[in-house]
Amino acid sequence: MGNSEIVRALRNMDDRDDIPQDLCEQMLKYVPMPEEKAMLDEHGHELDQMARADRYLYEMSRIVHYEERLKALCFKKKFVERVTDVKLKTNSVNKASKEIYRSKRLKKLLEIILAFGNFMNRGQRGNAVGFKVTSLNKIADTKSSSDSGVTLLHYLMETCERKFSDVLKIHSDLEHVREAAKVNMTELEKDLHILRIGFKDLEKELEFHRSRPRDAGDKFLHVVSEFIKTVALNLSEVEDAFQDMKQWYERACKLFGEDAKAMQPEEFFGIFDQFLVAAAEAKMDNDNYKKKQEEEKRKAKAEIERRKKLEKDRNKKAGKEDKEQSKIVPKQQQQQQQQQKNGNVVNRIDNKEKNPGEFDDLISALRAGDVFGEEMSKKRTKRNGIGSGNKATSRERTGFRK
C-alpha cells in the first residue's frame, strides 16, 4: 500500500479492511515522537527530497490524533478475537466449577478413595475424615508388592467396575474440566483489563472528535459510534459472566478446602483432569489384562482339546492294529498278547496313581502359558526326587504397599 492509500484507510477507519491486523500493529510501533514530528514539520517544504521512511512519517503525522486513531483501529480489529477468548475461558471455568460442585459421582469416588486410605492406614492414621485434593494423583504412585506395573488406581478402577459401576461414568459429569485446566486467572483478568482500557480510550477519542469540526471524508465519528455500542454490550456481558464465574470457582475451591485466591484454575482443575486421564488409562489396562487372561484360557482349553483328540485318535489307531494282529497270530499267542496288554494297562494306572499331581501341573502350566517352560521342568525334577507335595501358586494382584 502507498502512503496515500494508508492515509485514506485511516481516515475511513479502514471500513474496507485494507489494512491487515499485523500491519496495524507494526504501524503502532513506529508512531513519530513529538520531537520527530517537530523536525519533520520544519522540513515540510523539502518533501520531495525526503527519504521514503521520513516521507511516510511526515504524511502520517498530518492526520489529527494519528496515534489515538491508530490505537482505536487496532482495538477494533482485535476486539472480536479478544472478547471471544475471554468469554470462552470464563465459560469453561464457570461450567467446570459447577460440574465439580454438583457431581454426585465425584463425591462417591472420593468417598471410596477415603475408605481405601483409612483401610490401608488402619490404626492411628486410619480415621481420617478427608484428604487434600492435591493428594488425589498420588494414588497412582502406590504400587502392588507383587507387580510394580499394578497400582492402587488399577485396583480402585476394578473395584468400581465390580461394585460401583455408575461411578465410572464420571467423565460425563466433568466435561469442561480439561478446558478449565488451561485457564490462568491472572492472565484472564489481564485480558479483561485490556478490554476495559480499550473501551475507555475509545470513548475518550470519540468525545474528542465530537467536540471538533468534522473533516471532509473523515468517517471516524460514524464508524466508532456504531462500534462502541457493540463494545459496550459485549463488555457488559463479559463482566457479568466473569463475576458469576469467580463466585462459582470460589464455591468449588471451598468445597475441597482450597483457597481460590491462592490456587489458579489451571492447578485446581488440572488435578482432576490428570486424575481422570490416569483413571481412564488404568481402566484400559484392566480391560486389556482381562482380555489377555481370557485369550490364554481359550488357548489352554484349545490345547487340551487338541491333546485329547490326539490321544483318542492314537487309541483308536492302536485298537485297529491289535485287531488286525489278532487275525494272523495263533489263539494262544493272541491270549498271551492280551495278557501282556492288560498288564501294561495296570502298570499305567499304577503309575498314574503314584503321580496324581502331574496332570494338575500340566493344567496349571497351560493356564500360566509355561507348559514347556522352566517351571514345569523344575516341578517334574522335584517330584521325581522328593515327591509331589507342592502346589502351583497363582499371581496375585493385591497386596499394595505405600
Describe the structure.
With 402 residues, the chain is mostly helical. It is 71% helix and 0% strand. It is elongated. The protein starts with a helix and ends in a 16-residue tail after the last helix.
Shape: elongated
**Structural class of the helix and strand makeup?**
mainly alpha
Kindly state the percentage of residues in helix.
Answer: over 70%
List the uncertain runs: 343-356, 369-402
Q: Can you count the helices?
A: 15
Secondary-structure element string = HHHHHHHHHHHHHHH
Q: What is the rounded Rg?
A: 41 Å
How many runs of DSSP E, i.e. beta strands?
0
* Average pLDDT: 80
How far apart lie the N and C ends? 69 Å
Strand content: under 5%
The biggest beta sheet reads: none
Secondary structure blueprint with pairings:
Blueprint (H helix, E strand, L loop, with lengths): L2 H9 L9 H9 L4 H9 L9 H10 L4 H37 L1 H17 L31 H12 L6 H4 L3 H4 L4 H26 L9 H36 L9 H64 L2 H24 L2 H12 L5 H13 L16
Helix pairs in contact: 2-5, 5-10, 5-11, 7-12, 10-11, 12-14, 14-15
Short recap of the structure:
With 402 residues, this protein is mainly alpha-helical. The chain has 15 helices and no strands.
